[in-house]
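User: Earlier you gave me the apo prediction for this protein. Now I'd like the version with flavin-adenine dinucleotide bound, so I can compare the two side by side. Same sequence as before, with the ligand SMILES added.
Assistant: Got it. Here's the input I'm using:
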Amino acid sequence: MSKTVLIIGGGIAGLCTAITLQQIGMNVKVFEKSTEPAVAGAGIIIAPNALEALNPYRISDEIIRKGHPSDGFNILTDRGRLITQLAIPPGYGNLYSIHRKDLHHILLSALPPGTIEWGKQFLHLEQKDNHVQVTFSDGSQAVGDLVVAADGIHSNIRKQTLKEDIYRYAGYTCWRGVISVDGLPGLSHRFIETWGTKGRFGIVPLPKDKVYWYALINARQGDSHVANYSVEDLQRLFQNYHDPIPSLLLKMASHDMIHRDIVDITPMERFYSDRVVFIGDAAHAITPNMGQGACQAIEDAHILAECLRVQSDYQGAFADYDARRRRRIKLISKQSWRTGQMAQLENFLFTSVRNRLMKYAPKRIYRNQAQRLYKFQLKG
Ligand SMILES: Cc1cc2nc3c(=O)[nH]c(=O)nc-3n(C[C@H](O)[C@H](O)[C@H](O)COP(=O)(O)OP(=O)(O)OC[C@H]3O[C@@H](n4cnc5c(N)ncnc54)[C@H](O)[C@@H]3O)c2cc1C
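And here is the structure of the complex with flavin-adenine dinucleotide:
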């Protein structure tokens, strides 16, 4: 018999799970606290593993059509010299950058009208013997067989289930934005990350002469002085970096920048609790250094549906989902954390040694790592 599944959170994880669960015949409802689809946001990179996981749902083609391809990242010094190329292995396809609002639009379009209820802020849930009951801040309630917790890194559902604090501040803070770059010289079609002693700067082209940029600098957690940086502060910080970084920042306005401290959560001990299963950032928010947070949420969505498809008993399905996801998530979370620590080094001597090590490291080390990362496997 078809189960009724209540998905809390309409971000990438929640929407993808709605798509994959509807495909296996579940009766799905998404509850999102925002009153309408997000119109703001920066860019995002979708990697081959996520495109493969979305392929059966005919979404990958749309992302490819609306995104900008790159066969990898160039890592540069602040002077613009190449440290190394992180290339996607041959035969794996490309990375695609896309505006977040375009990605949301693609995912929303894949769902039948009425799947999402907007303006529904989850407050609490009660697990009963044969169903689960959810209460929202407007006093309304919903009843289902199962709940998917897709309410992001600050998941209320996780807090109610786990109680303990599992956040980890990475030691650096991030600004992001999207700008129009019509006619700006010196832009490469490849994605670029520049690692200097004053911070890290990313340039990711988007279609239609737009660029998604991000800047990461070391700071104390919650430092209010740093949090209030204006675009002029960033211009000063990165003024001696190679072109086109200073000219990109000149095109930016402070009110269009999105700021956030970089935090991850140590992956939950168990990605489920009775009738509730956790997915995406609610279960395992990852630092953004490998561009895999959303990609792993997409993998979660595909694998959860596969587990529920082959096992009618939800407890067995959730245990199977947990077993298939745990190792990969732990590995990527750890790798992403380490990459961030390496990329954020500030000491001139250490950065010189790092750059040399990366430049002359055998290419097969990165190739093997990339082959594991960019391959989607149902078995995890
Ligand atoms: C700087 C930065 C750059 C990144 N770049 C990339 C990248 O290039 N590639 C990549 O794959 N990943 C990237 N990520 C990670 C990626 O953004 C996240 O992993 C992904 O968005 C997580 O999706 P989610 O749906 O799990 O959570 P969220 O996007 O946080 O969505 C959660 C949703 O739940 C809703 N919600 C929250 N609480 C409630 C409630 N109580 N009731 C109802 N609804 C609620 C929220 O409004 C939201 O819509 C990046 C992250 C950062 C910080």
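For your comparison, keep in mind: The CA atoms of residues 109 and 212 lie 24 Å apart.
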